[in-house]
Amino acid sequence: MSSRSAYPLCRTKGKLAVGTAVVLLAILQTLPPVVAAAHQPFAMYAGSWSGAGTISTTNGANERIRCRANYEVAPSGLDLHQNLRCASDTYRFDILSDVVYLDGGVSGTWSETSRRVAGRVSGTLEGTTLRVNVDGPGFTAALALVTRGNTQVVSIRPQGGDVVSIAIQLSRS
Fold first, then answer.
1. Tens-place pLDDT, residues 108-163
2. Is the pTM of this model over 0.70?
3. What are the residue boundaries of the structural domains of the chain, listed by start?
4. In this structure, which topology does domain 43-172 adopt according to CATH?
5. Alpha helix (H) ranges present in 50-119?
6. Distance separating alpha carbons of residues 158 and 160, to the nearest angstrom
């Protein structure tokens, strides 16, 4: 008996499995980035970013601000370390953040090194939009970050204090 006729069912199942795997791989490669992002939600942030924006104050003044951000993303895509440095003529801040993604939610910690304050981050990441609340002793702010390709739009709305809002547009370097 030849090996060809001895195991025809195994040979057919093997070809079917390989064929199915090839078809699945082809389908996965055509899925939109949002589906892929569900598995590595922070992957879109990786790298260095820089740009400028405006700080608006309670007295109605607007001041130009320049920022640099660096995002380090864990291989899993579920952990993010951020270093954001911004400066204007009057303001300067250097924020470090470590956040984790779990089931659509984002949580973690932040610290502002020059003022030696720290606190918690909590919110959601839906598609390309991150919305979080940042709080700590004497400080609360709402932050929205929208990423599209190599552009990020950041909106920060602190509560209390003399700053009403910070709006920044960053580009990947």
1. 999 998 888 999 999 999 999 999 999 999 889 999 999 999 999 999 999 988 99
2. yes
3. 3-30, 43-172
4. Lipocalin (2.40.128)
5. none
6. 7
